[in-house]
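Field: COMPLEX_INPUT
Field: COMPONENT_COUNT = two
Field: RESIDUE_TOTAL = 230
Field: MODE = joint
Values follow.
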Amino acid sequence: GENVEQHPSTLSVQEGDSAVIKCTYSDSASNYFPWYKQELGKGPQLIIDIRSNVGEKKDQRIAVTLNKTAKHFSLHITETQPEDSAVYFCAAPSAGSSNTGKLIFGQGTTLQVKP
Amino acid sequence: DTEVTQTPKHLVMGMTNKKSLKCEQHMGHRAMYWYKQKAKKPPELMFVYSYEKLSINESVPSRFSPECPNSSLLNLHLHALQPEDSALYLCASSHGPLLFTDTQYFGPGTRLTVL
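Field: COMPLEX_OUTPUT
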C-alpha cells in the first residue's frame, strides 16, 4: 500500500530563519498532496496543498514544491515566527483510492521556532 | 466558512458506559470522516461516509458505531470501550463525491478518556 515518509521528526529554528520539511511517497499515481498544521489541543488545519499539474505553489510565507519524478514534496516556511510552532503533517492519497478519499499521513514534524 | 464543529470537547467514560460523539458541518459537503489520533501520531482513518452512506470501514471494532443521520451530521456511538481507545477523535468533511484530490477539513476533535 501507499507509504508516506516524513523528515525530520523534530525541527528547531530561530525566529526569522527558514524551515523545510520533506516527504516522500510510494504511489506514482498520486497527484494530490496536502499539508496540515496541528497546534496543541486542536485539530489539523490545512495550510497548503498541491496537485501534480504544478511543481510549486506559494501562499505568503508558505510554499510547497513537488518533484513527481523523485516522488517527493516539501514544505517551505520562510521568515518563521513563534506562532509557526506546531506539528506539521504531510499526506498523500492511498494507493488505488481514486474513489475513496483515503489519505495516508506522514508521521509528523514538530517545529519549534525560538524567539 | 470552512468550519467543522465537534461536541463534546472532552469526554470521560467508564468501560460500561454508552456515549456518542457528534460532528456537524454546514459547508454543503457530502463526504464525512472519522479519524482516531493517539498522542504524537498522525490521524488514522476509521470511517468514511459519502452521501450519507458508509463507504469505508477500516476494520474498526464494533464497539465503535458510526451514524450519518443527514448530510450535515455525523455521529460516533461508543459502547464498552477499552482504556486503549483513549485518544483524540477527529471528524473531517470534504466536498464529495469521494475523490483523492478532495480537500478534507478537520474539526477540533473530542478528547476521549476511557477509565
